[in-house]
Design goal:
heterodimer; A: alpha+beta; Four Helix Bundle (Hemerythrin (Met), subunit A); 5-stranded antiparallel β-sheet; 20 helices; B: mainly beta; 6-stranded mixed β-sheet
Chain lengths: 661, 164
C-alpha cells in the first residue's frame, strides 16, 4: 500500500464517494429507505472527518453542508426529495474534484451549496412532520465498545454526553470484563456501561447516538416498565447488534425494505474481508511467476536428460506447483464486472437528465469476472456505446408512445462467460439503426460507391469505419469526435471483437467478445528463418502444406486455393526479410478475423504454446506486425503476431494485385 | 532531467563503443549483462532492432553506435549489455544498451565537463549532453532524451553538424 497518507486518503475518499453515489442513486428509487439514508450520512460524515484530518479543509467544509442536509433527512425533518438527491449528487462531483485536488472552483461550490439549500428548503416545506414523539419512556441501554476502540479514536465520554442530552440518565459502569491489573493494557477499553435513560425521544434517537460506532460494538436497548408501548413501527423490542461488519447488518434490512433488483445486492457483495493491493504489485508478482515458469521449464529440460530419479521427481513437483501458482495468479487478477457496470448507473442518470429521455438501465451477470486491466480498458468504450444507445438509439418519450412502446427506454448491460471469452452486450429497445441513413452517409463520405451492393452486416460494419457519425445533429453527448472506430480499435487492442445487430424499430444490440485475460495467450509457435513467432490460436483456422506447385505458381499473385476459395497469403520470410533460403517444405497457417482470411507462410510449425504475454516498449509501438512478445521455455523471446493487422495487410496486398491485374 | 551544471559531481558508468568512451548516469543503470540471446524485431528502427529477456521481462535493445554513426562491430569477449531504467514519456522503461566494453563507475566533476561544442564534431550536437576530459581521454555523455525520442536519428535526421 502506498505510504503517502494523502494518497491513502484519496483512495479512501474515492471509495466513500462511490458508496455515497450508490446510496444516492438507490435513494432516488426508494426515498424512504432508512438504511440508505444512514449509509449516505455515514459516508458523508466519514469523508468530512478524514478530509479534515488529512488537511483537505475545503473538502471538509464543503462536505459539512451536505452532511448537515442529510442529517435533517436522517432525523426525518426533510424527505429525501429527488431534487435534494440530485443536488447532493451534483455536490458529490465537486467533492471528488476537491479530493483529487483538481480544478474545483469555489464559485461552483457556492452555486452547488445554494442549490442544495434550495432543495432542502423546498423539501422541508413538503415534509409532514417529524415522527410523532411518544410520551416519556424509560430505557435501559447497555453498551460496550471493542477493546481497541480507544486506539481507533472512539471516545466513550461524548457518547454518554449525547445520551444525557436526550434525557435524564443514570450511568453505571460495568467493570466485570476488566482483566487483572498485571494483564491490563491501559490503552484497551474493557469498560461497559449501563444507562437508565428517561426520554421523550424515540428509540431510534438512542440508536443514532451510536451510529458511527455501531458496527463494532455491543448495544442492547430495552424498554423498562412502566414505559409506554413503543411507537416506532419498525423497531423490534430488543436489538442486539453485535455486527462485525456493517454490510452484514445492513443488507437484510435493505432487502426487506425494498425487494428492488438494483442496488441492494451489489452493495452487499462488498465484503470486509479483503486486502487492498496496488495493481503494480500484482503485475510484479505476475512477472515473478512468469520468470518462475521459465526457470521451471529449463529445470524440466535438465531433468529429462538426467538419469537421477530424485531430480526428476523434484522437477515434476516444481512443474505442478508452478502451474498451480500461475493459475492462482490469474484468478487474483480477476475482478467482477460489477465494478465496471456500477459506474454506468450514474452515467444513465445524467444521460436521462441531459436528453430529457426516460431511461432505465438493467444489468445482468455482474459477477462475471475479467482481468483487472481489461476492465479498466473497457470503461471508455462502454461509456461511448452507452452514450450512443441513449443518444441515437432511444427515442424521446413522445416518439416512443407514438410507436406503441412504453415511454421509458431500456438499456441493458449483460455479461457472461463463454469459454475463454467474456461476452458483454449492450442492448437498447430504441429505434434501431437507420440503414438508409448509414448508406447515405457512407456514400457521402466516399466509404462505399453509390448504389454498392452490401449485405446487412457489411452495412452495419460501416458504423465502425473511421470518421463515421450518423447523428444529424451533433449533441454534446456523442459525436464528440471519438467515433465507433475508436471503440472498435480499443476492443481489438484487447484482442476482442465487436459485433452489431439491429432491428429497425426494435432496437440494437452490440456484443463485445473479450478474452478473459490479457496476460496469457494460447498460441501456435512457428519458426520463420532462425526466429520463432507466436500466432494467437483462436485466430488459426487450419494449417496446410505449401505445395511446390502453389509455391511456384504464386510468384506473381500470392493466392492459394483452399476448398474452392481463394485465400491471399503472405510469406513471412519476405515480410521479415530473413534473407535466407526457405525450408523445402513450407507450411501455411490460415488465420482469420471475422470473415476475412489470410495465409501466413512459415518454415515450421513447432506446436502450441501457452504463455504470459509481455507488451513491447514504446520503442516498438510503431511496429504494427506484432502485438506483444512472450518468453519461451529456453529463455528466448518470441514475438506475437498481430493477426488483425496481418489480415488487413494481406487483403490490401490482394486488392493491389487485383487492381494491377 | 537535471542539467549537468547544477550538480557538482556526476556519478557515471563508462563504457566503450567502437573505440570511443561514453558515460551514462550511474543512477539509471540497473544491471550489466553478458550478451544474451536476442530476438530481432522485423520492421523496427535499426537503432532498436531487437528485444531481449531481462529477468522475465521483454526489453528493447538499443545500439547507441547507430545514433553516433559508428560502425557496428561484431561481438567480442568484452561485449556487454547495460540495462538502464529510463523515463520515456513519463514511463519508467527498461532499455538494454549494447556496449563493446564496460569500464567502471566513476565520478565526473563539473569542472571536467563541458558543453558539446557546436563545431568540429562529427556527431549530432543535440545527441550529446556534455563532454568530459579524463586522463586525456574524451568522454561523451549522450543525451538519451533526444536519442530515444528520435530513435537514434532513424527519423531521417542527417548525422552532420553545421556551424550554428
Amino acid at each position: 500500500m502506498s505510504g503517502d497518507p494523502v494518497e491513502t486518503f484519496r483512495q479512501e475518499a474515492q471509495d466513500l464517494l462511490e458508496q455515497i453515489e450508490t446510496g444516492l442513486l438507490d435513494l432516488a428509487h426508494r426515498p424512504g429507505d432508512r438504511a440508505l439514508i444512514d449509509a449516505v450520512f455515514r459516508g458523508l460524515h466519514t469523508l468530512k472527518g478524514s478530509g479534515a484530518m488529512f488537511g483537505f479543509d475545503a473538502l471538509a467544509a464543503f462536505t459539512h453542508h451536505c452532511e448537515s442536509a442529510f442529517d435533517r433527512v436522517r432525523k426525518g425533518e426533510v424527505p429525501a426529495s429527488p431534487e435534494l438527491v440530485a443536488a447532493v449528487l451534483a455536490a458529490q462531483d465537486h467533492m471528488r474534484a476537491l479530493a483529487e485536488g483538481t480544478d474545483a472552483s469555489e464559485a461552483e461550490g457556492e452555486a452547488l451549496l445554494v442549490r442544495l439549500r434550495q432543495a432542502v428548503d423546498a423539501a422541508a416545506g413538503v415534509v409532514v412532520e417529524a415522527p410523532s414523539a411518544p410520551g416519556a419512556a424509560t430505557w435501559k441501554v447497555r453498551f460496550s465498545l471493542p477493546t481497541d476502540a480507544l486506539a481507533n479514536g472512539t471516545r466513550p465520554l461524548p457518547l454518554l454526553d449525547e445520551l444525557r442530552e436526550l434525557g435524564e440518565c443514570k450511568v453505571t459502569a460495568l467493570t466485570d470484563q476488566i482483566p487483572p491489573l498485571e494483564a491490563l493494557n491501559p490503552t484497551e477499553c474493557w469498560l461497559g456501561w449501563e444507562v437508565i435513560l428517561t426520554t421523550t425521544h424515540p428509540r431510534s434517537a438512542i440508536e443514532d447516538v451510536f451510529i458511527f460506532v455501531i458496527d463494532e460494538m455491543t448495544l442492547e436497548i430495552e424498554a423498562l416498565e412502566p414505559a409506554a408501548p413503543v411507537a416506532e413501527p419498525d423497531a423490534p423490542a430488543e436489538v442486539l447488534l453485535a455486527a462485525v461488519n456493517s454490510e452484514a447488518a445492513a443488507a437484510p434490512i435493505a432487502e426487506i425494505a425494498a425487494p428492488d433488483t438494483q442496488g441492494g445486492e451489489a452493495k452487499a457483495a462488498r465484503v470486509g474481508d479483503t486486502v487492498r493491493v496496488p495493481a503494480e504489485r500484482l503485475d510484479e508478482l505476475m512477472d515473478r511467476v512468469g520468470e518462475l515458469v521459465i526457470a521451471q521449464s529449463r529445470l524440466k529440460q535438465v531433468a529429462v536428460t538426467s538419469t537421477e530419479p530424485q531430480l526428476r521427481a523434484v522437477a515434476e513437483e516444481i512443474e505442478r506447483l508452478a502451474s498451480e501458482l500461475r493459475d492462482t495468479m490469474m484468478v487474483v487478477r480477476m475482478v467482477p464486472v460489477a465494478q465496471l457496470f456500477g459506474r454506468f448507473r450514474r452515467l444513465i442518470h445524467d444521460l436521462a437528465r441531459d436528453t430529457g429521455k426516460s431511461i432505465e438501465l438493467s444489468t445482468e451477470g455482474e459477477t462475471t469476472e475479467l482481468d483487472k486491466t481489461v476492465i479498466e480498458r473497457l470503461a471508455d468504450p462502454l461509456v461511448h456505446l452507452i452514450r450512443n444507445s441513449a443518444d441515437h438509439g432511444l427515442e424521446t418519450p413522445d416518439q416512443r408512445l407514438a410507436a406503441g412502446k412504453p415511454a421509458t427506454g431500456q438499456i441493458r448491460l449483460a455479461a457472461r462467460q463463454s469459454g475463454a471469452e467474456v461476452i458483454i452486450t449492450i442492448t437498447d429497445d430504441g429505434r434501431g439503426v437507420d440503414r438508409a441513413r448509414v448508406r447515405a452517409k457512407a456514400e457521402e463520405n466516399g466509404l462505399i460507391a453509390p448504389g454498392a451492393v452490401l449485405s446487412d452486416s457489411e452495412l452495419l460494419q460501416l458504423i465502425f469505419h473511421p470518421g463515421f457519425s450518423t447523428a444529424a445533429t451533433i449533441t454534446n453527448l456523442s459525436g464528440r469526435g471519438v467515433g465507433m472506430d475508436v471503440v472498435k480499435r480499443t476492443i481489438e487492442g484487447l484482442r476482442g471483437a465487436i459485433e452489431m445487430t439491429s432491428e429497425p424499430g426494435q432496437g440494437s444490440q452490440i456484443s463485445l467478445r473479450i478474452p478473459l485475460t490479457l496476460a496469457i495467450i494460447d498460441g501456435l509457435l512457428v519458426r520463420v528463418g532462425p526466429a520463432r513467432y507466436v500466432i494467437p490460436l483462436p485466430a488459426v483456422e487450419e494449417c496446410v502444406e505449401l505445395t511446390v506447385e502453389q509455391d511456384m505458381r504464386s510468384t506473381g499473385r500470392s493466392l492459394l486455393t483452399l476448398r474452392d476459395r481463394l485465400v491471399p497469403f503472405i510469406r513471412l520470410r519476405e515480410l521479415f526479410r530473413t534473407g535466407l533460403v526457405p525450408d523445402p517444405h513450407q507450411k501455411v497457417v490460415v488465420v482469420a478475423t471475422g470473415q476475412e482470411r489470410v495465409g501466413l507462410v512459415v518454415d515450421q510449425i513447432l506446436g502450441d504454446h501457452q504463455t504470459v504475454i509481455k507488451s513491447l516498449s514504446s520503442f516498438h509501438a510503431d511496429v504494427e506486425t506484432f502485438s506483444g512478445a512472450t518468453i519461451l521455455g529456453d529463455g528466448g523471446v518470441a514475438l506475437i503476431l498481430d493477426v488483425a493487422h496481418l489480415v488487413a495487410a494481406g487483403q490490401r496486398q490482394d486488392a493491389q494485385l487485383r487492381a494491377a491485374g | 532531467m537535471s542539467e549537468p551544471h547544477t550538480t557538482d559531481a556526476l556519478q557515471v558508468l563508462t563504457f566503450d563503443l567502437h573505440g570511443e568512451t561514453f558515460a551514462l548516469e550511474a543512477g539509471w543503470v540497473r544491471e550489466v549483462l553478458d550478451p544474451t540471446s536476442e530476438t530481432t524485431v522485423p520492421g523496427a528502427a535499426p537503432f532498436v532492432d531487437a528485444v531481449i529477456n531481462f529477468r522475465g521481462r521483454v526489453i528493447p535493445l538499443a545500439d547507441l553506435r547507430l545514433a553516433f554513426g559508428l560502425e557496428r562491430s561484431p561481438p567480442t569477449i568484452d561485449s556487454r549489455i547495460v540495462v538502464i531504467e529510463y523515463d520515456i514519456a513519463g514511463d519508467p522503461t527498461l532499455v538494454g544498451l549494447r556496449a563493446d566494453k564496460v569500464h567502471e563507475v566513476t565520478t565526473l566533476e563539473v569542472a571536467e565537463t563541458e558543453e558539446a561544442p557546436r563545431v568540429g564534431l562529427r556527431w549530432r550536437a543535440d545527441f550529446i549532453r556534455c563532454l568530459a576530459r579524463r586522463n586525456g581521454d574524451l568522454i561523451v555523455v549522450p543525451d538519451l532524451d533526444q536519442i530515444f525520442a528520435s530513435k537514434g536519428g532513424a527519423t531521417g535526421a542527417v548525422v552532420q553538424l553545421s556551424a550554428a
